[in-house]
Amino acid sequence: MQTFEKLAQVSRTLQNSYIKAWKDQGKKVVGYVCTYMPEEILHAADILPFRITGRGVSDTSKADSCLSRVNCSFVRCCLELGMDGEYDFLDGAAWVNGCDHIRRGYDNWKAKAPLPFMYILPVPHKIFPEGRQWYKEEVIKLKEAVENHFGVKIRSDKLAESAAIYNESRRLLKRLYDLRASDETPVTGAEAHVILSAGVTMPKTEFNKLLGDFLKEVEKRPKTSNTKIRLLVAGSMMDDPEFIQNVEELGAIVVTDALCFGARGFWDLTDEKGDIFENLIDRYFNHMPCPRMAGEYSKRLGFIKDQIKRANVKGAILQHIRSCDLHGTDNALIRPDLEKAGVPTIELERQYGPMADAGRIRTRVQAFLERIGG
Amino acid sequence: MGEERRNVLESIVETFNMTSNLPENLDLKDPEMKALLDSLTESRRNNFIAMVKDPDVRKMSNVSNAATGKYLDLIYHARDYGKKVAYIPFNASPEIFHAMDIVPAGVEVLDTFAAIMQEDFNEYLDLSVERGLPDTMCSAQRGVLGLLEAGLLDKPDILVNGALGGCDANSKIFEYMAEKFDIPIVYLDVPFYHDERSIDYYTNGYRQLVKALEELSGNTLDEDRLRDVCELSNQATELFMEIDEMKRHVPNPVPNYYNLNHLSQKLTLVGTSDAVEFYKTALDICKRRLKEGAHVFPEERIRFMMMYTGFYFDQSVYFWFQEEMGVTYLLDLLVAHDFCPIIDTTNVDTMLAGLAQGMLNLPMTRQLKGTWDMPANWLYDLLHYVETYKADCLVFSGHTACKQAWGIYRLVAEEIKNQLGVPSLRLEGDGWDSRITPISVIKEQLSEFFETLY
């Protein structure tokens, strides 16, 4: 089996073969939902961090009875899977108060389908010294909660090992993004999304090995035509490669992103020298901020512009899941700023889920590509 | 100052001034008055009647309207007086701004006045969306944003965002205004919990807010002036607490419409002598009503509470409940302040700590942060208010933008039913946008609900 196919299988299956093998060793798996969760805390406890997804849901009637139509469809899909028992393989879930929707997703999951370990990590909404201190104290509380619940001790040397493994993963992903940024990229955006998806649902060491192999294999691939329109995708949570594929089928290629599931989530490394716990706090608290972090708009815009430049992007898709006030509002600011900078930009409101709104999205993207191409 | 801008703000000030001296013997059947009422649209007529028909309501509204008219006039003329204007959310204490001689313009309060008094208010809700904002953002601020977009309101000098962690929609719209109109903004982070550590964190944030306001306005915080404001605020708190005590009485003597006057006073004018005068007037009226055994007509059949926000675009509900339905409108969460502290005026530190604590206990900040089942949260407070004020039922307005409240409505409603046996009704309306569910439909839905309770 080709390396990519192995990664694709992981991406396609909720309880993939790596998780089964992990659990067969008597080891634990804990879900998480946000890039403000320092995964290394779990990893250093020999717990597999698993990024919770809502993929594979065709109906959200159970979740809708708890949440509502004004709540994010990503959160409703995740809750549906939780209430359906699809996440029973998780030994716990560590949430973050990332946004109002995900916070209420946690409330309902905890009330209606609790896992043995349910935790929420409160992250401040402002980057300032007192906020960092608060975050640090909260991560200490998380660490203690994990230690107490799972009967483990999270040592500094293990944290340092985990930080190195995670950094290695980020460096490999950056190499992948370098390839994507090249003039005739050998990797489609949909493939990159499959890889990202696998990377957050399987053991990191094995993912790093597979990704390293993939990068070697891909160098032998034929290059993608450079006639395709090079796009960036930014905005709300997006872990569904099908969305990207839907766009790429129209004659475009997604060469980079500014998604929490993608570049925004992995771009920053942890300093491996010195006090590793403090370094992890710095890395996670100060990483490229989500729109939940107030007063950081110019930093987010700067990151998008940097990605556009390094990947020679010709157009930007700013998508947000309906009712996502954080990204919807940011997108409303970003679009005119990018247009002013000469980057054609489209805003798309969508519902989460593979191929949800596919026809409407295709029509709008097609018109957008005609605008860029024409 | 553009011609159109004068039309908007001046007309609102004018309306308040006109309704601040209503005669005791006002006769709504008088031909001249009838002609005036007939000339109004249904919604504006409803609002006017709700405010004037009952002599007690009219009397307290006179005082409230005079103070509000003066306050709005101050916003309108702030620059002429050399004062800075700060747009603040409803969950920011106005006292610190009064103390620093900065004019606090409560965005949601302005939005509400515009919703009631501007015939074409919905056009400004829509304009904010036409200019880029998602339509899922909150109508409690979108009207003001639309008025800014249209140039019908002047840009404020300062924005203060106090909703971080309580409501994404509220906090993002302030950031949006800051970026779009290039207005300096100060962010106050709301802690997740409600314990001592959180209060310290928030108080520290409040000190930083004062420092930022000093830098942005050029004004300094004078201890004596702050003490004056805090003492006035404490007086107001003691007075409205006494009125709240009376609401516990069965039947409740406090007129339903008091809640609306209280809303505008508490969110904008506490810390001023005008607010104290209003609360004194309201207290006197309520005391007399208690003595006389006054209550809703024909008798108090239902004691009603909104679970969170109410309907503000058409205020006839208050009148309809009081005059026709026998329903006491005890409170919605925006007027519920049982946990408002008395400020220790010993020194600047104690006063800032008291103000910060007050702000942490303001509606939404207090109840909608954190998780649903934490102490001092939505469920906790609703259990307290239902028990304390002997509510018979709860209604969730279903305000479209309140995603964080929608997300736990069912959990909270079920728990209240389980613990206290009090039923809830979930509507799908909007507090400021009349088009989501018209008031006539809301009344029908409420009537049907009440039938199940009699």
What does this structure look like?
The complex is a heterodimer of chains A (374) and B (454). Chain A is α/β, with parallel strands linked by helices and 374 residues long. Chain A folds into two domains: 3-152, Rossmann fold (3-Layer(aba) Sandwich), CATH 3.40.50; 157-373, Rossmann fold (3-Layer(aba) Sandwich). In chain A, 52% of the residues lie in helices and 13% in strands. In chain A, the strands form two sheets. Chain A has a four-stranded parallel beta sheet with strand order 2-1-3-4, sandwiched between helices. Chain A is globular. The mean pLDDT of chain A is 96. Chain B has a domain at 3-220: Rossmann fold (3-Layer(aba) Sandwich). In chain B, β3 (158-164), α9 (168-181) and β4 form a beta-alpha-beta unit. In chain B, 56% of the residues lie in helices and 9% in strands. The termini of chain B are far apart. In chain B, α1 packs antiparallel against α4, α7 packs across α8 and α10 (196-217) crosses α15 (348-360). Chain B has helices spanning 3-18, 31-39, 42-52, 55-77, 95-99, 107-117, 121-130, 139-149, 168-181, 196-217, 223-247, 258-269, 273-292, 316-325, 348-360, 365-368, 378-388, 403-406, 409-420, 439-451; strands spanning 84-88, 102-106, 158-164, 185-189, 302-306, 327-331, 393-396, 424-426. A four-stranded parallel beta sheet of chain B has the order 2-1-3-4, with helices on both faces. In chain B, strands 6-5-7-8 form a four-stranded parallel beta sheet, sandwiched between helices. The model of chain B is unreliable at 1-5 (pLDDT under 50). By secondary structure, chain B is of the alpha/beta class. Classes of the chains: A alpha/beta (374), B alpha/beta (454).
